[in-house]
Amino acid sequence: MSLAGAPPRSLFSDAPRTRTGPAPYAEPEYDALDRAARPYAVEVRSTLDRWFSELPDYARPSIRANFRSPKTPVHRGALLELYLHETFRRLGFEIDLDVGREDPTRRRPDFLLEPDGARTWVEATAVLGADVFTAAERARLQQFYDLLNGCRDKRFLLSPQVDEVGGATLGRAQILDPIEEWLAGLDAADVRRRIDRGAEPPEIRLTPEGWVVAVEATPVREDMPLLEHERVLGSSIEGVAELDDVRPLRRNLKRKATRYGALDAPYVIAVLCVGTFVEDRDVAEALLGDTEYRWDRERGGVSGVRLPNGLWYAPGKPANTRVSAVVTIPHLSATSAAVVEPTVWTNPWARRPLQLELPWRRQEIAPDGRITTHEAAHSAADILQLPPGWPHSGR
Questions:
Q1: What value does the mean pLDDT of the chain take?
Q2: How many C-beta neighbours within 10 Å does residue 65 have?
């Protein structure tokens, strides 16, 4: 046990471990790892505690508390901070970590890296995919979407993002009444003008009964008004089909892009993609815009056209140019650190182009949207000095 006032020495509990079989599906990730007695779990806990010991004393309580959270995005977010700190440390970067000493009067990204001539800011964040939710949670999501489709204000299409599903279904008073009151205060024509100039749709965030929900409102087109019986979520949203691959990633990135204002060095957003959903195509659409397929009369075939709704491209001009690059780290978990390979996506319109040399796979985006792939100089296992087959399976 840690002494009072001393930084914790371990991410894990001191409880005896006797479980040798599989964990229940509903058990939080941290609990499953903390209670497992099998050799692979011992190896993982030992490795993560070594990484933990390299953190500054002030950062350990915060990262430990979040790592032990039963909420998947909180737990994985702390894991990402731990993983990045260890990776940057082994790459020999000087690290100024803000986690654990946040000051609301001077908000800044999580990491400031100070290699020679390549000062860089890095923000860490976790994004959920639809497959993270259980069958029971999906049923409550279905009910939530049905509730939103009962919205009486037909001036807007609603785009929901659910980060946490509460333990109970929601009623009109908890979710729809506050949304309708918020919509009543919006001028649809003014919102449309702002969006056409490159602004993001307005958003309301709600947290009733353990849910964490964000809802965007986009004005319907004047030449295509919604009829009384039509859905405000749009015909493409059925069940959880649009708690999808691209939208949560794009929205999270856009929030992080504007969170800190102008910075004095290149700014990188590192994203842990939780679930099995993110492929290169999804990331490209989040950054550059959705692909819409149209009939080309001259060519006599279908061609793909990028819509101006990506992180880096808004109507008529580049957007969020303060973001120099995005690093995607899909499927990172406590047991996959040796096999997950990050990818760096560079912004061709960056106000401050990325100068930092990172040994990961790189997707170099050209101003015309073409993407050139450069393979990694070193594997994650090599960088973290993890042995082949880590963690070794053991019964």
A1: 86
A2: 13
User: Taking Cα atoms as reference points, which of 388, 393, 339 lies closest to residue 38?
Assistant: 393
Cα(211)–Cα(48) distance, integer angstroms? 30
Average pLDDT score over residue span 329-356: 95
Backbone torsions φ then ψ of 232, nearest 5 degrees: -80, -15
In whole angstroms, give the CA distance from residue 383 to residue 90.
7
Model pLDDT for residues 380-389, shown as the tens digit of each residue: 999 999 998 8
Residue 102 in this model has a pLDDT that exceeds 70: yes
- The arithmetic mean of pLDDT across residues 159-184, rounded, is 90
Query: Which amino acid belongs to residue 136?
Result: A
Cα 377 from Cα 284, distance rounded (Å): 22
Residue 323 dihedral angles phi and psi, to the nearest 5° = -85, 110
Alpha helices in 197-237 (DSSP H): none
**Spatial CA neighbour of 120 closest among 371, 344, 387:** 344
pLDDT band for 204, please (50, 70, 90 cuts): very high
User: Please, are residues 308 and 314 in contact by the beta-carbon 8 Å criterion?
Assistant: yes
**Mean pLDDT to the nearest integer, 5-17:** 87
CB 287 within 8 A of CB 326: yes
Bond from prior residue into 391 cis (ω within 30 degrees of 0): yes
Burial 358-383 (b: 16+ CB within 10 A, else e): bbbbbbebeeeeeeeeeebeeebbeb
Max Cα distance, the chain (Å): 75
Q: Are the beta carbons of 334 and 48 closer than 8 angstroms?
A: yes
pLDDT tens by residue, 103-161: 888 899 999 999 888 999 999 999 876 555 666 777 788 889 889 989 999 999 888 88
CA 183 and chain centroid, separation: 27
Task: Please tell me the distance from the alpha carbon of residue 91 to that of residue 110, in angstroms, as a whole number.
Answer: 17
Measured distance CA(70)–CA(73) in Å, rounded: 9
Say if CB 157 and CB 232 are below 8 A apart.
yes
Inter-residue contact 253 to 271 (CB < 8 Å)? yes
Beta strand 203-206 pairing with 267-274 = unpaired
SS3 161: strand
